[in-house]
Specification:
Layout: H1 20-33, H2 36-46, H3 56-65, H4 69-76, H5 84-97, H6 102-128, H7 130-142, H8 144-150, H9 156-175, H10 180-196, H11 202-214, H12 218-233, H13 236-243, H14 259-268, H15 277-296, H16 303-324, H17 339-352, H18 355-363, H19 366-375, H20 386-396, E1 402-406, H21 412-416, E2 429-431, H22 433-436, E3 442-443, H23 446-454, E4 458-464, H24 469-488, E5 492-499, E6 502-508
Parallel strand pairs: 1-4
Antiparallel strand pairs: 2-3, 4-6, 5-6
């Protein structure tokens, strides 16, 4: 495709002639209906967001965002600078809400998903008209993976929102005669993309493929390259600082032959164990069938939508898989910013297939989508069921009880849920993570632990079991050493409860 100024194509054709007045009225109606999509996205993000238990990463967010400015900047100078912008934003949210808890920490992500939905509605209009915009935005709003990360107190929903807006500004640069402001906006959004998550810059490679396909002309290409270079340059300080903190990067699963299918499945329904096989398979097959129909009827689809959507969906995961062959980094959540591309392509398929097939494409995935939405809102749908810990404490606690944590960042549960652990000292901690300027609490040495156990009658021994390989081995060693210390102090287990990612044991010793 060659064009100096690619123009949006209309989506699909109509067998019935439409008068200009009726067409304009229909477009206005579709544009007005486009506001429904972000409202749906926001509603699904807020609905039930108190139910899922906060897990490791969210607990870190809550703990770090509650720190003072000096404490936060001390931490970011040592570790986790790549999430610094998100922590700063969440700190401001906590100040605005008068505190940060599971609900208030997740609401900003729901707002970010709503922004992504509104942005995709706008982008769809640019690429194929109001109907494509409405379908794309609404589809992104109802996809369970979008809702799942709308209820995650991390930066991934923000990355997705910025990626949509950055792609929209790319299209405006390619199709508008007044490009100056859009070039500036594009550069700023690329910088924000990198500051929220450096792996979001993989989108720039997808944009490069789009530009290569559209061939907008040398002048436009040079201007785009300059804007993207400026955006990336603004992220260089973070890249330098982050490279010195690479030890803070968690482990990622190795790339295998099944990774592409697992990635595609995750885009449709997050968490491989949150949905039974049959509905998950129906959802996958419906999506694949829609994409196959789009390939067969691609001549009826807006060429600009394909040139934007296909690279956006395929290039970032392929690059990340290639990099991960040497240095494992492939984690699905890092690629959430590609989810709008899938919604865009599925919506494009919906607009070009015959009407009977449209009904089928709506009906077939309805039950799996509802089932997935219900599944991701269960208390144990996250890697750690911290609600089980708090519930156990509230039903079985006794005056004078202490707690003892084992497992990477497990002790942060007490930091994040201070009310639940009031008057329950952590005998395995000397300083909190905030006091130590770190992500983890500073553990007590064996002598101090022994002294504290000597003055305690009952201990809640809480072990976090859902951990990466190295952290799991370290947690196993820590738990074994703690159990030995408890046994030597005369403690024996009187109650045990196993929850998702958690082992909760009440240890007690006879009264003196």
């Amino acid at each position: 495709m060659t064009a100096t100024s690619p123009q949006p194509a209309t989506s699909g054709t109509s067998a019935t002639p439409v008068t200009p007045g009726a067409s304009a009225g229909r477009d206005r109606l579709l544009r007005a209906a486009g506001w429904v999509s972000p409202a749906v996205g926001l509603g699904l993000g807020i609905w039930g967001n108190r139910e899922p238990s906060a897990w490791t990463d969210e607990i870190v967010t809550i703990d770090v965002a509650r720190r003072s400015w000096p404490q936060m900047f001390e931490l970011l100078g040592q570790v986790d600078a790549v999430h610094g912008l998100h922590y700063v934003l969440m700190h401001l949210v906590g100040q605005a809400f008068g505190g940060l808890n599971e609900y208030t920490a997740r609401v900003p992500s729901a707002v970010a998903v709503a922004v992504a939905v509104a942005g995709l509605t706008w982008l769809g209009r640019l690429l194929g008209g109001p109907r494509l915009g409405l379908c794309a935005g609404l589809l992104l709003a109802v996809l369970p993976t979008a809702a799942r990360y709308a209820q995650e107190a991390r930066s991934f929903a923000f990355v997705m929102a910025v990626a949509v807006l950055a792609t929209g500004t790319l299209v405006k640069v390619l199709s508008s005669r007044t490009r100056g402001r859009w070039l500036v906006a594009h550069a700023v959004l690329i910088a924000l993309l990198g500051w929220f998550n450096v792996l979001g810059l993989l989108l720039v490679a997808a944009h490069a493929v789009t530009v290569a396909l559209l061939r907008p002309g040398r002048r436009v290409t040079i201007h785009l390259l300059a804007a993207q270079a400026a955006g990336i340059a603004a992220v260089v300080p973070l890249l330098i600082l982050g490279s010195r903190q690479s030890s803070a990067v968690g482990e990622a699963a190795p790339v295998t032959a099944g990774t592409p299918l697992n990635y595609f499945t995750w885009l449709l329904t997050p968490g491989q164990d949150t949905l039974p096989t049959a509905p998950k398979l129906l959802l996958i097959l419906t999506a694949l069938a829609a994409l196959a129909l789009l390939v067969m009827r691609r001549h009826r689809a807006p060429s600009l939508a394909l040139a934007v959507g296909v690279p956006w969906l395929a290039v970032p995961p392929l690059l990340l898989m290639a990099v991960s062959l040497g240095h494992p980094l492939f984690a699905y959540r890092y690629l959430l910013f590609c989810l709008p591309a899938l919604a865009l392509l599925l919506a494009t398929a919906f607009t070009v297939v015959p009407s009977p097939l449209r009904l089928l494409l709506v009906v077939l995935p309805a039950v799996p989508l509802v089932a997935s939405h219900l599944a991701i809102r269960q208390p144990d749908s996250r890697p750690w069921d911290t609600h089980a810990v708090i519930w156990s404490l509230s039903t079985r606690d006794a005056p004078g009880d202490a707690v003892l944590f084992s497992g990477a960042r497990c002790g942060l549960i007490a930091n994040a849920f201070e009310l639940a652990f009031t008057n329950r000292p952590d005998v395995g901690r000397t300083r909190t993570a905030a006091e130590a300027g770190a992500l983890d609490n500073l553990p007590a040495d064996p002598d101090l632990l022994r002294q504290r156990l000597a003055h305690t009658r009952r201990v809640w021994h809480i072990t976090c079991t859902h951990l990466s390989g190295d952290a799991r081995q370290a947690a196993t060693r820590t738990a074994a050493a703690q159990k030995e210390a408890l046994a030597r102090a005369g403690f024996s287990p009187i109650h045990h409860h196993k929850a998702r990612g958690m082992d909760i044991t009440i240890e007690q010793r006879p009264a003196d």
